[in-house]
Structure prediction request, 206 residues.
Amino acid sequence: MALLELKEVEKIYRQGKVEVPALRGVDLLIDKGEFSSIAGPSGSGKTTLLNMIGCLDQPTKGEIYLEGEKISQLDKNQLALLRRKNLGFIFQGYNLIPVLSVYENVEFALQLLKDMNSKEMKDKVMEILAAVGLAEMADRKPNELSGGQKQRVAIARALVKEPKIVLADEPTANLDSETSTDVLEVMVEMNQKLETTFIFSTHDPF
Ligand code: ADP
Ligand code: MG
Prediction:
């Protein structure tokens, strides 16, 4: 069974009387442990597609299955729970909490989900920060980091709760090409080490 399956997914945005078709029948199969990219120019529907997979928005038509379970028809509360347990998100603009340290940003993701004692939680957070090369920077605030370092924090935050899928919407769009390569390499490394499935979007042609 595929980890994720999309069947003829359509999305039409309605703005008053105007209909904007963003996805016109997308079929997609993703297996556990895959590292997949969605490439296309601005406006091609990458964010829309990731939002459907991420249960942040629902298709106008078509079905989405996660581990065989149809998720395209769950209600808001079921979707929120499913999202919290199964999905990690990485955004172009990092979306770190500015008043929290690197450590606290990652810990916060875990506090929302898992019933762990503080020692277990600390070990888990420090382990993932070390894995993305940020153990030394645990006490810094986001504004004391480079763009690449901020994105590593976001990767750690997405991974710390051991989600089934990490969705990354243009995670390298704000970074120079060298830093982009570094950040992609960290994602590939985490994919190989943890077997987490990654789906990321990019407007760069390959
Ligand atoms: P990408 O992420 O590849 O740049 P998007 O998924 O953001 O593409 O957008 C796909 C299309 O859907 C575009 O034509 C965009 O203008 C339109 N669109 C995206 N979000 C909305 C929205 N909330 N309301 C109306 N149209 C939207
Ligand atoms: Mg987009």
Remarks:
- The mean pLDDT is 94.
- The longest strand covers residues 18-30.
